[in-house]
Amino acid sequence: LRVDRSWLVSPAGSPDYLEQVLRICAREKVRALAPGTEPELLVLSRNRDALERAGVALLANDHALVEACLDKWTMHQLFVSRGVRTPAAALPEQADQFIREHGFPFLVKARSGSGSRHLSIARNREDYDFFARRLASLGISFILTEYV
After folding, report:
1. What distance in Å separates the CA atoms of residue 141 and residue 123, rounded to the nearest whole number?
2. Regarding beta strands 119-122 and 106-110, do their DSSP bridges make them parallel or antiparallel, or are they unpaired?
3. I need a surface site. Which of 28, 40, 113, 130 has the fewest CB within 10 A?
4. Residue 38, SS3?
């Protein structure tokens, strides 16, 4: 990817991230901004008004939808409520019923995050129990989804 200029800014979670982005947008006369990572998407969508006041269009969904979709269980429920076909999913407390209804294999994955971090395929009950214990020991909330 070739660009005319590049800028190094603080991580999206830093208190001065938005100020840095706004300063660069003003200096470079940026008219539209497309977030590249989930942390940036979260901060920028939360601050859409500040960007719009600066004349910058944010190329992203509204913040409420962004937040909903960053939680895989909430996103699943949103899809189901809107009639969007989606693989079956369950919370850990529903595991026994999910296994009875859908069997193995299925995915065990963190409710948040990306890049397939904390994603495993449970091929049998022993796999599931191992993955569930491991994620719980790390304090990671997870869901079960059909393997398609």
Report:
1. 20
2. antiparallel
3. 28
4. helix
Q: Say how far apart CA 43 and CA 63 lie, in whole Å.
A: 9
Contacts 24+ apart (CB under 8 A), 34-37: 34/59, 34/60, 35/59, 35/60, 37/12
Chain centroid offset of residue 98 CA: 23
Q: With contact defined as beta carbons under 8 Å apart, do 144 and 104 qualify?
A: no
Span 94-138, pLDDT tens digits: 999 999 999 999 999 999 987 788 999 999 999 999 999 999 999
- Return the C-alpha torsion angle 74, 77, 82, 83, nearest 10: 140
The tokens 């944010």 sit on which residue? 58
Q: How much of the chain, in percent, has pLDDT values that exceed 90?
A: 92
Q: At what angle do helices 17-28 and 38-46 cross, to 10 degrees?
A: 80
State how far the Cα of 102 lies from the Cα of 95, in Å rounded to an integer. 10
Only one residue has tokens 């991230």, namely 17
Q: pTM of the entire structure? A: 0.78
Over residues 22-39, the mean pLDDT reads 95
